[in-house]
Amino acid sequence: MTTTSTDDDARGAVTARGVPVDARATADGRSTADGEATADGRTTADGGATALQPPQDPESDTRGATLSRLERYIVSTSPFTPVLGATRALIALATMLTLIFTPTNQLFFRSDAIPSGVNCGGTLGQFSLFCLGSDAGLLELSRWVAVLVLVLVVIGIAPAITAVPHWYVTWSVMTSSTAVDGGEHLSASLTLILIPFVLVDRRRWHWSMDRGYAQRNVWVKCVAYCAIGLFIAQVMGVYFQASIAKFGVLEWSDGTALWYWMQNPTFSPPDPFGSAIQAVLQFLPVTVAVTYGTLLLQLSLVPAAFYSRPVRQTILILAVLFHLAVAATMGLWSFSLIMIAADLLLLIRPHESTQLTATIHWKTRPLRKDVA
Fold this sequence. Notes:
Layout: H1 7-12, H2 58-76, H3 82-101, H4 104-107, H5 129-132, H6 139-155, H7 159-176, H8 182-199, H9 218-246, H10 250-253, H11 257-263, H12 273-280, H13 284-300, H14 309-330, H15 333-347, H16 350-364
Protein name: HTTM-like domain-containing protein
Transmembrane segments: 144-165, 185-201, 222-242, 279-302, 314-342
InterPro entries: HTTM-like (IPR011020), Sporulation_SdpB (IPR023894), Sporulation_signal_mat (IPR052964)
């Protein structure tokens, strides 16, 4: 006589491997070793339930690793380096040379539109350093106060204290002078961007290394690197606009622009240097090569912050030589110094500045005599 199997009989059944099988089935009719069904009916090695793991995304892993490296870099690498000091010093030097070597009556040129020579128009223009003292006949005094502030910036004393005065002076020159060029506008913009960066600089001298960065608050580090990023974006935008806009000018697009520039007495250097340059540019291949070379260099500087270190070093040398050539041939010394300053922070990363400074210090450090 045949009997019907009970639940207890089912629980007592064994598999081919001799493992007791729970009578409770999984979603697809299979059983786990201890009767606990998994999400898809599969069994773990010890009979426990497992969750279905999502597939791994290689791109997500790469992004995560990149962010992790960036976070470690920001936390461990101080951006308060002598390169920051050199950038601030060159920007200040450019404005200082303009104030020292440009006579007051040319820096603040009188005209029918501006009889006093000092542009104090607009809502904020009246707060310029040169407008505050112009009515009282203190324009010359304001000029030398500005020079004094810029001297302190060049020397590098207490960068956190001179950050705002530096911007205020450059902004005042840009706002009030009637003889400014693009250099003063860029100088005011860059010094404004650097304010939050330099305000958290605790060094007494901006030519020194930052020894206390490891103990700084993480938010201070984020502020500093965000300011660097904004500074780099500004410089990239300047080079992008400078290069792309030139293609809309016929003389730049056909490669003859520099020949025309050198024919302009305002920008051509004095003789005999000027005559020699004009003679060389009479050869069309030379003119085309120099003109297109200028465009190529400016375009290559747009993404230059992302190049490898050897490429950035080469680009930096070419950029410095280019700006010095512009200064020597066209007399735009102030503008060229500002662009060189911008290139330093654009192309030299903080850890590279630290390594460079350490190398210079090691090579210039006097040898210590062995103690017997």
